């Protein structure tokens, strides 16, 4: 009778240690088999929780300067080009300072001031090249400054495209958990507030420049405001400019800040307009239901069956 109570098939006793080893070997074999393609995004299904597993992605670049670590790579590149341009231009214009005529104050300060005025295309005319060498040098820096500005605009365009791609990707991500209304609320950015803040900073810069010209350059209020407007917009008629050493030292920082602030304001306005249209597109995509015409158009081979691969395409 004891034989009837015994199991029909005898089971071998499995050591828990051997079971853990088998499980670890199975997991490691899966890790070796699942290799991520360079173009494939990282997913939760990837076994990337193990610190020993190496991926094909290169490590992110870490800047030596702490304040530059969190900057956008495009912005870091623009800042590098700008510093290189300003340093080279100051050195070159300082070496030919005797070939530049006009109201001079200090050699180094005048070189920096002339370089900034040339790069921003303000062109007051208070300092002008008077020899063939200095004029050729000024022409070279005018065109290189325009190239730098064009590079900045191209990076700004790339930034707008990246923002739109991020917006659309985030919309499809959130669609899995919330509805279209909640998605649109989640995607509402603070661009409008950025526009307001940038415009407020621009107004403050205009007021500061006007007050400085009245106090230190002894200009009337209307002429000071006129000079500020012609400078911020890089118009630079040349009848009013910074003539004293203190004024040019202030102008080196103020001209760069005010012109960049104006360009940033226009960038935010363009981004706000583009994002408004993009949100309308996202709303149309998320709220639109699939019709029979869409299904017929998705049937590429015409067999009346839509596979998963065809549906994704």
Describe it.
It is found in: Membrane. About 65% of the residues lie in helices and about 0% in strands. It has about 325 residues and is an all-alpha fold. The chain has a two-stranded antiparallel ribbon with strand order 1-2. It has one domain (about 65-300): Helix Hairpins (Orthogonal Bundle), CATH 1.10.287. It starts with a helix and ends with a helix. The longest helix is centred in the middle third of the chain and has 43 residues, at about 130-175.
3D shape? elongated
Name of the level-1 CATH class: Mainly Alpha
What would you report as the Rg, rounded to the nearest angstrom?
32 Å
User: How do the SSEs run, as a string of H and E?
Assistant: HHHEHEHHHHHHH
CATH level-two architecture = Orthogonal Bundle
Report, as a whole number of angstroms, the end-to-end distance: 66 Å
Averaged pLDDT: 74
Note the beta-strand portion: under 5%
CATH topology category name: Helix Hairpins
Number of strands: 2
Spatial order of strands in the largest sheet: 1-2
Give the fraction of residues assigned to helices: 55-70%
Count of helical stretches: 11
In short:
The protein is mostly helical and 313 residues long.
Keywords, separated by commas or semicolons:
Helix Hairpins; two-stranded antiparallel ribbon; mainly alpha; 313 residues; 2 strands
Task: Draw up the topology in text.
Layout: H1 2-5, H2 16-33, H3 73-95, E1 100-102, H4 107-119, E2 127-129, H5 132-174, H6 180-186, H7 191-216, H8 221-232, H9 245-287, H10 292-298, H11 308-312
Antiparallel strand pairs: 1-2
Helix pairs in contact: 3-4, 3-5, 4-9, 5-9, 7-8, 7-9
């Amino acid at each position: 009778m004891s034989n009837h109570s015994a199991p029909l098939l005898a089971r071998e006793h499995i050591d828990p240690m051997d079971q853990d080893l088998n499980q670890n070997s199975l997991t490691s074999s899966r890790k070796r088999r699942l290799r991520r393609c360079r173009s494939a995004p990282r997913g939760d299904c990837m076994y990337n929780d193990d610190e020993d597993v190496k991926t094909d992605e290169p490590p992110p670049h870490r800047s030596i300067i702490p304040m530059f670590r969190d900057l956008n790579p495009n912005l870091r590149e623009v800042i590098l080009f700008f510093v290189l341009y300003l340093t080279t231009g100051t050195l070159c214009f300082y070496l030919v300072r005797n070939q530049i005529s006009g109201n001079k104050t200090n050699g180094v300060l005048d070189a920096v001031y002339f370089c900034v005025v040339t790069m921003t295309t303000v062109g007051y005319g208070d300092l002008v090249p008077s020899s063939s060498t200095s004029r050729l040098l000024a022409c070279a820096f005018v065109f290189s400054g325009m190239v730098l500005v064009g590079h900045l605009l191209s990076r700004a365009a790339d930034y707008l495209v990246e923002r739109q791609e991020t917006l659309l990707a985030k919309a499809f991500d959130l669609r899995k958990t919330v509805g279209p209304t909640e998605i649109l609320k989640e995607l509402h950015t603070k661009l409008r507030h950025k526009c307001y803040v940038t415009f407020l900073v621009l107004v403050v810069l205009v007021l500061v420049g006007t007050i400085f010209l009245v106090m230190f350059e002894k200009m009337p209020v209307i002429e000071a405001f006129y000079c500020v407007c012609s400078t911020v917009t890089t118009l630079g008629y040349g009848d009013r400019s910074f003539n004293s050493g203190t004024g040019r030292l202030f102008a080196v920082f103020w001209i760069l800040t005010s012109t960049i602030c104006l360009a940033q304001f226009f960038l935010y306005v363009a981004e706000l307009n583009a994002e408004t249209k993009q949100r309308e597109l996202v709303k149309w995509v998320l709220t639109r239901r699939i019709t029979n015409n869409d299904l017929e158009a998705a049937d590429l081979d015409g067999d009346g069956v839509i596979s998963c691969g065809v549906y994704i395409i």
